[in-house]
Amino acid sequence: MANFARIRLILELHDRGMSQDEISRSRHMSRSTITTVLRTARKKGITYAGIRKLDDAALQKLFFPDRPEGSDMYELPDYESIHKELKKPGVTLSLLWTEYRDRCHQNGNIAVGHTKFCEDYGRYCTTHDLTNHLEHKPGAQCEVDWSGPTMQIIDRDTGATISVHLFVSCLTYSRYAYVEATLDMKMDTWLRCHVHMYEAFGGVPVRTVCDNLKTGVVKHPKEGEVVLTDAYEALGLHYSTAIMPAGVRKPKQKASVENTVGNIATAIIARLRNKVYFTLGELQKDVVTATDKYNRQPFQKRQGSRYEVWLDEKKYLRALPRAPYEIAEVILGRKVYPNFHVSFKKNWYSVPYVYRGQSVDIRYTDKLVEIYCGNRRIASHIRFPDYMTNHYSTRPGDMPDAFNQPEMDKGRICAWAEKIGPCTSEVIRRIFDSVTIKEQGYNAALAVLHLSQKYPKDRFENACQYALAHTTSPRYNYLKAVLGNNQDKILDGVHSARYENTGKHSISEKGAYIRGADYYGGKTK
Fold it and tell me: What is the spatial distance between Cα 395 and Cα 106, in angstroms, rounded to a whole number?
């Protein structure tokens, strides 16, 4: 039988003029219980004088007429459901008790107090062999760090030993680990490891806790806001995870990964210490295998393994974004050439012709090149691989005809070359023949002609003749080397007669350099 004496006592003390707070403090009763009793009494017109002489059965029928005789006046919590709810991020016993209490009030029932609620939940966990110490919630947090101990690979060519660093991370609830071998600890490597980590976890936790390394944290004052690097903050926004650096010199704030780093030293570094690796790929393959074995080992003080708990934790992780985060770098103040292209990594990318001569900024990733003028993006291109050079990415809309802009006069460039000599003219012609559209040849042609202003015409013409004999399409760098090494001077003796087909030297119709018949007759020096 429920303790209906409490109902009598509440009504009696309230009848004497005591407030609900005074009743709660003096009799150590839950304020919600007092509120429920008084609300029900007012609703049904019950007074202390009317119930003072009633027994418990009659009191129950008066307060709870629909309940069977002898049933409890409290609506008991569903602790099985409560235990499941506690696994969700941000859910606490206090929050669940508040929701339970409000639900009881809506149903016209009395809720158990907060203390009894927590004590009964503890007894439920003990009875069902469950843990009620949920310090870490599934999907709530992961921790990342660099391993102190390193590994090595051997350079096949030199035999030198190259240090390999280990990026270590784990989900704090399941302790499921991810480890990646890297050649450095630079910012780009740090960010790429995060991208690979989230993919390995199969989702993104609410928080990512890191150390105060310079590649990720600009400033972490004792008071005030933590300042992250722009790239690290952008990664957090892309994956919708809160980047939260641990306190300075407070390793306990990321104790899970510190523990994992120690375990990794045995599970990976020690186990692989006798193997010799010549490439990072070979080492990473064995690191992945050793990490998987580590994750599948049974816990010593907990049921299951990291892998088994991670399978349950995955459903609490946030979904990965559709596209992985791409690391971007910025180059400021790059000039747009007269051919309306910008040079980047020895390749050329077009911008609208109206921006020729202006200064622009380049933002690039592993796959993309974006060009900005101020805060406005004016062009975007697929990036050429680093092994490709002197390639052009030209958008049709960037060409001058599309904007009705006056084109640079190719005829003026060719006329300038003809004034220097036929060999110079041939060099310029071959430059224009080697490009898809004539605008792509403006920069290379003007560079050659500007070089001619630094030398006498006869020397420059000799240099062009020498270059035509040794390369298909001479450019600025080649001609500059010829002039710098005085290789043009070996042709001084035949300079005046090289264009007449009189047995000396000449330029063929196709532009090739041809020696005359006198040369083969032994008359030419």
Answer: 66
- What confidence tens digit (pLDDT) does each residue in 248-266 have? 555 544 556 567 777 777 7
> Which distant-in-sequence residues (6+ apart) come within 8 Å of 489 by Cβ?
459, 462
Contact at 8 Å (CB) between 294 and 268?
yes
CA–CA dist 40, 108 (Å, integer): 8
pLDDT in tens, 150-164: 889 998 888 889 999
* Position 28, amino acid: H
For the chain, how long is the longest CA-to-CA vector?
145
pTM, 2 dp = 0.50
Q: In the structure encoding, which two tokens stand for residue 185, read together?
A: 């600890």
Pairing type for strands 242-245 and 207-210 reads parallel
Structure tokens at 220: 């972490």
Q: How far apart are CA 298 and CA 295, in angstroms?
A: 8
- For residue 447, give the amino acid letter: A
- The CB-side HSE value for 309 (13 A sphere, CA atoms) comes to 22
Q: By mean pLDDT, which of 6-10, 392-396, 496-500 is the weakest?
A: 496-500
Residue 83, pLDDT score: 78
Angle at 423 between CA 477 and CA 453, to 5 degrees: 55
